[in-house]
Amino acid sequence: MTTATLAESHSIASSLGSLALGDNEFEFLRDFVYQYCGIVLGEQKRQLVQGRLLRRLRALGLKDFAGYCEILRRDPQGELGELASVISTNVTSFFREMHHYDLLVDELLPRWLEQKKKDGGRLRIWSAGCSTGEEPYALAMVLAEALERTGSKVDARILATDLSPQALEQARAATYALERMGGISEARRQRWFLRGEGAYEGYAQVHPRLRELVTIQPLNLLHDWPMRGPFDAIFCRNVVIYFDKPTKQRLFDRYAGLLEQGGYLFLGHSESMYGLSDSFDLVGRTVYRKRA
C-alpha cells in the first residue's frame, strides 16, 4: 500500500469522522478476532472497536472498515498484532496485586533458590501477557533481590510475552514516566532505575541488571509455543477475562503441561479457574498450584 499524501490523509481523516462500523464488517471482525486471538467481542464492544479502529484506518490511509477487513483477509498474520493492540486494554502497573509478590518474596523464591542450588536446576518464570513490561520487571526486582540476599548463583530467567507489538516495544525500551511508578517503593526506585535527564526528564529506565533477567518475545497464546519449559511459575493475569470457557480450558491445560510439578499459576483478581481445570488446586488469592 502506498503512503497517502498529506492532503489525502487530511481528507481521509475528515471523512472517517462520521464513519460507522457496519454489521457485515463487525461480524467479520468478531469471527476473525475469535479465530486468531480467542477473544470474544460482544455487541456491546462495537462502539469501542469502531472508535479504536478509526485510528488504525487513519494510520493505514484507508477510507472505510471494509478496506481494513480486506487487509485482514489477505494477510491475517501481518496485521494481527496491530489488531490485538486495538481491541485489548493494556492496563498494568508495577506490583499490581501485591499479595502475589509477597508470596514470591516470603515463601516461593527462598524455597526455589535453595532447592535449585542443591540440585543445579534452573529457575524460570513466565509473564504471559506482559503488556508494556511493568509485570516482568517487577518480577525481576524481587528475583534479583532474592538472588542477592541468598548469594545464589542459580540460573534464573523471566520470559515475557505478548501479542501486541506496541506493548512489546515499550517493554523493550524499559523506560517509564515517573507517574507510572507509584507502586514502587523509594528504595527500589533508587536501586533499580536510572533517572532520566534533559530530554528524558520525568522518566526513568529499568536498571540493566533487571533487563538481563528478562527475555521479551512476541507470542500468540492460541498458537504454537516454542518454549519447552518447565516453568516454576506462570503469571497470566487479566488475560483470560477476554476468552470464552473452551479457550480458557485449553489454555489452562497447556499451562499445566509447561509447569513443574507443584508449579504455580497466578491469575488476575477477577479471574477464576473454578470448573475449568482438574490440574490445579487453589492455594491463595487467585494463586493455583499444579497437582502432583
Question: What does this molecule look like?
Answer:
Methylation of the membrane-bound methyl-accepting chemotaxis proteins (MCP) to form gamma-glutamyl methyl ester residues in MCP. With 292 residues, the protein is of the alpha/beta class. The chain folds into two domains: 6-87, Orthogonal Bundle (Chemotaxis Receptor Methyltransferase Cher, domain 1), CATH 1.10.155; 98-290, Vaccinia Virus protein VP39 (Rossmann fold). It has eleven helices and ten strands. It has helices at residues 6-16, 23-37, 46-60, 65-74, 76-87, 98-119, 134-150, 165-173, 186-192, 208-213, 245-258; strands at residues 123-128, 156-162, 175-177, 193-195, 203-206, 214-218, 231-236, 259-267, 280-284, 287-290. The protein has a seven-stranded mixed β-sheet with strand order 6-2-1-7-8-10-9. A three-stranded antiparallel β-sheet has the order 3-5-4. α4 (65-74) crosses α5 (76-87) and α6 packs across α7. The radius of gyration is 21 Å and the shape is globular. Mean pLDDT is 90; it is low at 1-15.
Q: Keywords for this structure?
A:
disordered N terminus, 292 residues, 7-stranded mixed sheet, 10 strands, 47% helix, Rossmann fold, 3-stranded antiparallel sheet, Chemotaxis Receptor Methyltransferase Cher, domain 1, alpha/beta
- The total of helices stands at 11
Q: Helix and strand succession?
A: HHHHHHEHEHEHEEHEEHEEE
What value does the average pLDDT take?
90
Apparent shape: globular
Major beta sheet summary: 7 strands, mixed
The share of residues in extended strands comes to: 15-25%
Oligomerization category of the chains in this entry: single chain
Q: How many independent structural domains?
A: 2
Unreliable residue stretches: 1-15
Secondary-structure-based class equals alpha/beta
Architecture (CATH level 2) name of the largest domain:
3-Layer(aba) Sandwich
* CATH fold name of the largest domain: Rossmann fold
Proportion of helical residues: 40-55%
